[in-house]
Specification:
The protein has four domains: 2-40; 59-112; 131-167 and 183-335, 2-Layer Sandwich (Nucleotidyltransferase, domain 5), CATH 3.30.420.10; 346-447. The mean pLDDT is 90. Strand 2 and strand 3 form a beta hairpin. Helices cover 51% and strands 10% of the residues. The chain has 448 residues and is of the alpha/beta class. It contains 18 helices and five strands.
Amino acid sequence: MVEARSQIIALISAKISRSEIATFTGYHLKTIDRWGKRAEQGEVLQDRPRTGRPTTFDELTQLKVTAFFCQFNPLPGCNYVSLNWAEQYFAQNPCFLGCTISRSSLGRILRKHSLKPHLHKYFLQITDPKFFDIMQSIIDLYLNPPPYFFVWDECPGIQAKEALAPPLPLGNGKDGIQYSEPNHNRKGTIDVYSFLDVNTGKVFCKCTDDHKVETLVQVFTEHVAKQPSDEVLHYLCDNLGNHSCHQFCRVVAKLCGVDYPENELDSKEKRQNWLKQDHKRIIFHFTPKHGSWLNMVEIWFGILGQKCLKHHTAKDTIELAEFIDKFADTWNKYFYHPFTWTYDGKDLYDQALKRFIRHLTVENKFMDLSFLLSQLELMYNMLNQHFDRVSIKYWNLLENTIIEKKNYVCNIINKSDKLRLKKNAEEIFLDLLHQLNYKLHTCTKLAA
């Protein structure tokens, strides 16, 4: 609030009109007038003292409560403690707070500090050092797709579930909704391969019993056979091992009519680089690690789950496969359309930096050296390739945090018994510090 009030006063001082300030800040005209008058009278920006019941718990007690809930394991063996349990624990251990406290008071203190310990959310930290380079190339492809551009993936383990009772159709209840029996028998699983044409939105869908390399080769060959033989084909997929193994690469080489230098491609990275090369008719593009959301076919898998698989029952996998095939036909006949890609990834640069800063700040004892190394490599690559895409304040914050937490980082490196990783981490850590200092010093000189 203080920052917003400072903005209002600064804009008033700059002779900006009240209506323009209201549009820019989103505050009511009366609020702008009030803080303008208080600024003229020389009042501070904080709230005035208010009448009412005085605070029951002092600041130290509130800090103890928030510290208790902010721990990873508030009580032995407990990842989460409810307000009821916390109330009981504090009642039996009065020395912790020095007073008794009710469940409602605990809730008010947590709300005051915007804490929600009852909520838990997973996240995938970016660990691919080349993530942003790859992400930008994929976004460019979506914005300017080549004529024959397909995104594909497999969806494994779709269950055929036979309901124990048939669903009740619409109109058999007072509320006019459909009722389904949740109990079911499992009748096996199938896998679904889907190839989405980025330019049209049509889908080539194939149900299979598994997703072995042999199955992938068969489905991929079938899809290529449906395309014009004299056109260049572009395919986007993830980094699953089957998508770049020798057996798959040999098939790609055969379909393209080129030689496959198997002896030279002795690693996954080399094979992927070969698949990316444009000397062939079939060119591959790969999403970065932890970047499956960049694959547009995931949008179609979501539609498949919502419109086809949700609440569906099947007596066996054959019936389930037939139902999915019919849905794909319905999509391609009536509802297909190209998806418009709008995400530009600009906000992700700051997020990656802030999340790594937070990892360092909390000094989590569980951080693994391989994770730390991937983050250092990512930061180093961002610093040298995407410096302008991140706010200067976050680069400054990263430098200050790394200097402050240098001992913590060194402890993670030194306690590992992986000599090669240790050496790489030490070199990148020192180089990152040096480059950060140089870049920020140069920016300061240019600004001056």
